[in-house]
Amino acid sequence: MLRLGELLEARGHTVVPFASQHPENRPSKWDDYFPPGVDTQDPSLGDAARFVYSPEARRQMGRLLKDGGPFDLAHLHIYYGQLTTSILKPLVAAEVPIVQTLHEYKLTCPVHSHLSQGEICEACAGHAFWRALPRRCNEGSLARTALSVLEASVSRALGDAHRIDHFIAVSDFLRDKMIEHDVAAPDDITTVHNFVDPDRFEPSRQRGEHVLYFGRIAPEKGLRTLIDAAAPLTDLPVRIAGAGEQREALEAEVARRGLDHIEFVGFQDGADLWDLVRRSICTVLPSEVYDTCPLTVLESFACGCPAIGADIGGIPELIDDRVDGRLFPSGDVGALREALVWMQTHRGKAVEMGQQGRKKIEEQFSSQRYYEQVREVYAEVT
Fold this sequence. Notes:
Shape: globular
Order of helices and strands: HHHEHEEEHHEHEEHEHEHEHEEHHH
């Protein structure tokens, strides 16, 4: 959302942000209009109620429309749970066209991921959200799942699908799921993949030293599959960068198994992270959930580094097998090991693959290309 706002402002558009209050928000002359945030970590009864419907967000949206308008359109991102669908009615009343970028599966799954008890699940089919209750899909908790089901049901009733003039999906896979489960008609949803600015990244042209995973360390990311695949490859250094609820358990497992060539390097960002990527033979995304359009692949390509990815969700839309990376069946330890060995023994080819990835970013996933595609959607709704 922030990067899109920067793109629009750099090209002469006026952008007015609207978000919930948070101590880490960027300073804005509009933050007096921001409603109080919802504490989702240790929620009170009031927080739970505002998670489903926020009267204050509706009131503040009305103020903003009155004081700051007229507006050509509203572009929503992940607004639910904080702003909630309460903001839709004042936008519709003010006849402001609404575009929403879908980053995940909230409209087809009450826990946003199509993941239940560690397995892919589409039981709710975009509308029967109550089916999540016996499965306890939200962290195994009946209370949390009930709140998620209530929020999804209220949001649907208040127009989280039919009051949006046009959806943007960040992958064709995500778009197809929205159509399959009757959330959006084909003419009302357009794929615009995520982007990176290639000018922000210095690409590598050197042979890499290690294999790298960077991102959140959680069960659905497939890191146990990566560890099992890399375990016998003792001459191939593997680096795992990131933080998350599974890190402690996986780090202990690696130590117990004596896998000294696999190292957890902690959370990395900025220049340190990009240096780690540039020194990689390849990056790996062994996901076991419907990833939509992971920036880790695009950022890897921008750094001139090829990627190995699981063939799940939107990942195959980003990686051309044996051109700028490798694809393997999600969860398949043997196939991932074969891809790792191939990269290790074809390091010169891996450099060429990384160059192809960089070229792809410049031609297909640049900020300019993204801006052009989003402006086409804006033109349609206005």
